[in-house]
Design a protein that fits this description.
This is Putative DNA-binding protein. The protein is of the alpha/beta class and 275 residues long. Helix content is 53%, strand content 12%.
Length: 275
């Protein structure tokens, strides 16, 4: 993530000066492809190369120090990286979530992870892997709940959660767990940075049937799309991929109930479960 931040700043600095990658490379004795790879994060950033670029762009000493220090801290680990036995995908996702300014998440079968109660998390994890020990399960639950602190903290990212009604009807953990989970969704939906939308079962076939995904946007770095399946996950950043998933999200939202009807849908489900 820190390398992405530096890479994005290098691109911004070059474009602000109206230079091409070829022109910069020619001045510094490097290929245009190398400059491009540095700006996209597709190659590891070396302190010496970054320092040379910052000098060429005549960046102020203060700004130069900040960027180089940020790059040098790339080996320092966040709390999620120090957590034992976490899935690799979780570490990457939390890393990106920690910097995201906007997250848009569509889920057809589960409540989005950032919105789950601890009971719901436990039931999901037990269902996915019954062999988990108590300690392993506790670690996963604690990590999932810790992720949510970013969402509810002051200055947290804007979050759009789009949930298929089927996910709200699957009795994860049983009736009482689901009632408390639905109440939690109502509470979160009242937060200024959280918007929840529900796609009704009556919508029938729609773009969301192809599976879950999340679009993460950042202040300076390129946006990402996260796709998860049974055992692996993909992080996509090509503009064509982003455009495709943004279109899919628009199509899914066209099938969802209006934002001001979300609480009514959730309350109706709670009433149904209480019968």
């Amino acid at each position: 993530m820190r390398s992405r931040t530096v890479a994005a700043e290098l691109r911004r600095l070059r474009e602000a000066r109206g230079l091409s990658c070829a022109e910069v490379g020619e001045k510094l004795g490097a290929s245009a492809s190398k400059i491009s790879r540095m700006e996209t994060g597709h190659s590891g950033l070396q302190v010496e190369d970054v320092a040379a670029l910052l000098g060429f762009y005549e960046v102020s000493a203060k700004k130069r120090t900040e960027l180089l220090d940020l790059l040098k801290r790339g080996d320092q680990k966040g709390w999620w990286e120090r957590q034992a036995n976490l899935p690799t995908l979780w570490r990457s996702l939390i890393d990106f979530e920690s910097k995201a300014t906007r997250i848009q998440n569509y889920e057809p079968l589960l409540v989005p992870g950032l919105l789950q109660t601890d009971e719901y998390v436990a039931a999901v994890m037990r269902g996915i892997d019954p062999t988990l020990t108590g300690a392993e399960l506790g670690n996963l639950i604690a990590t999932r709940i810790a992720r949510q602190a970013r969402l509810t903290a002051f200055g947290g990212p804007q979050f759009l959660g789009v949930i298929h009604e089927a996910a709200l009807r699957i009795p994860v953990g049983g009736t009482k767990v689901m009632i408390r989970q639905l109440r939690r969704l109502i509470e979160l939906n009242e937060r200024p940075n959280v918007t929840l939308r529900v796609v009704p079962i009556s919508a029938g076939a729609h773009a969301g049937l192809r599976g879950p995904f999340a679009i993460l946007e950042f202040a300076e770095e390129p946006a990402l799309v996260l796709i998860e399946n049974q055992d692996t996950g993909l992080l996509l950043e090509e503009e064509a991929d982003l455009a495709g998933y943004r279109l899919a999200l628009r199509n899914i939202l066209s099938e969802a109930v209006a934002p001001d009807a979300t609480e009514t849908v959730l309350a109706a489900l709670i009433t149904e479960l209480n019968k």
